[in-house]
Amino acid sequence: MHKPNVSKSRKWLPVGLPVMLCLCLLACILTGTILSSNIFYTQLMLRTTISTADISQGRFVLPHSLRSQISDLQTKIGVLLEQLRGASAESEAVALFADQLLHIAISFDKLAESLSGSYDGSSSGMNEVSAVDEDLSEDEESEIEQGSDTGRFNSGELHNYTALKLNRLIGKKNFLGVEVISPSVGLACASMASNVDRFMDYKIYRMCPDDWDIAQKVMISGCDPLPRRRCFSKTPPRFSKPLPINSSLWSQPTDTNILWNRYKCKEYSCLVSNETLGKRGFFKCSNCFDLSKRGWEVSTNESTSAEFTIDEVLRLKPGEMRIGLDFSPTTGTFAALMKERNITIASATLNLGAPFNEVIALRGLLPLYLSIGSRLPFFDNTLDIIHSTLFLDGWIGLDLLQFVLFDWDRVLRPRGLLWVDRFFCKRDDLKIYLDEFSRLHYRKLLWRIVPKTDRLEDEYYFSAVLEKPLRS
Asked: Mind telling me which InterPro entries this protein's record contains (predicted)?
């Protein structure tokens, strides 16, 4: 069978693509594959029609329905090939036909891969997807637009990423039990297509643009997870090896191990300076970058303090706490205190105007870069403890709170601990929020409600340590 010249796909596609599909269809029919051939063929021909005007003007965009047809045919050919190889080979004709079908399948796979790279109409190949500069202006503001896009992505690299990824051995299931991998992209990405296109507009195999702030804004707006990219992350120009674990927990990280381009502060001393207080963008955690235990030296007076000490909580389950999650605006101080007690904590946070994740890592702890709208990347019933402070409070809607709490419940093991640390809201809303926590039917081990006195508003703190029940 003559192999088409893929590099000249624009000239060949109007004729070559239907021919290839017809050959694959014919192979399936000849071997007894059950297909409604007339209807299928008619629909396939209609969906593969490409106007010569579109091709000549470089506007060819492969329809999603055609990609689905290609993927479906690839799977059918693979299944057929598997059946042929498993059958009793009593004649050379069967073996020869199987080999021919294998060649068709391989050619078809290469065709699909080539088509996925031609979405942008570029003839320069996969190595030159983007024509824009890698670096973005430091002062450039990125506003996330929602609802104004058509939902159609233009980035050729994004189309290439989202295309189904077949196993190397066509028709063979991998160790996960599937024949193809479907890359994951957040649902809300379709409503902000231009912003996601901007994120995916880069040169593959080159340095990634310095655009993590754009990515984070898109994530916070619901486009999470973001598509993967094929570019290299930049290294701080004077990067030095981290401090050893026995001293990194409470030592101020060196400035040279952080890329400061996208932060208002350009050195660590700025993060802890009183002069920048209130201007840094991380109002939720104004003292986070003061790497000391001072914030955890809490009063145990139940009438005035809403806080519990770590040792007070751990005494509830002596020796049982080993792994857990801290979902808070944090630089890892809770995780550092728990590490000193031989407990491993992943710290889920965003970079809210400052290098939260970098500092967590430089302390020798585990940062989990995650937005509140994401499903936790943990399996069911696996964590011993979940802690959250100064994050869930009266801003959160009840629907979102339910999804968050039930996802925490999913990953928390039976008789694990949920530590809600200083949830605060207006007095009139307190019962509404407490009812949502009650829906979990957890056992109350520690429970405290006290007035919040740092502001004039009528607000209350709520803290609790709750035990997940056994469920059959």
From this structure: Prob_Methyltransferase (IPR053223)
Q: Report yes or no: 350 and 220 within 8 Å, Cβ to Cβ.
A: yes
**Largest Cα span, the chain:** 90
Q: Give me the residue spans of the domains in the chain.
A: 6-116, 128-220, 245-467
CA distance readout (Å), 326 to 52, 128, 150, 369, 432: 58, 42, 38, 12, 24
State the Cα–Cα distance between residues 9 and 104, nearest whole angstrom.
18
Distance, in Å, from the CA atom of 139 to the CA atom of 123, rounded to the nearest integer, reads 34
Nearest alpha carbon to residue 416 among 447, 384, 382: 384
The structure tokens listed for 85 are 């190889």
Write the pLDDT tens digit of every residue in 217-250: 889 888 889 999 999 999 999 999 999 988 999 9
pTM: 0.67
Q: Mutual orientation of helices 9-30 and 64-86 as an angle, nearest 10°? A: 40
Tokens of residue 120, six digits = 């942008």
- Give tens-digit pLDDT for 244-289: 988 999 999 999 999 999 998 899 998 888 765 555 566 667 788 9
Query: Is it true that domain 245-467 has CATH number 3.90.1720.10?
Result: no
Average pLDDT over residues 342-353: 94
- Under 8 Å between Cβ of 400 and 372: yes
How far is Cα 309 from Cα 313, in angstroms, rounded to an integer? Answer: 6
Long-range contacts of 392-397 (CB under 8 A, 24+ apart): 392/420, 392/423, 393/423, 393/424, 393/425, 394/424, 394/425, 394/426, 394/429, 394/433, 394/459
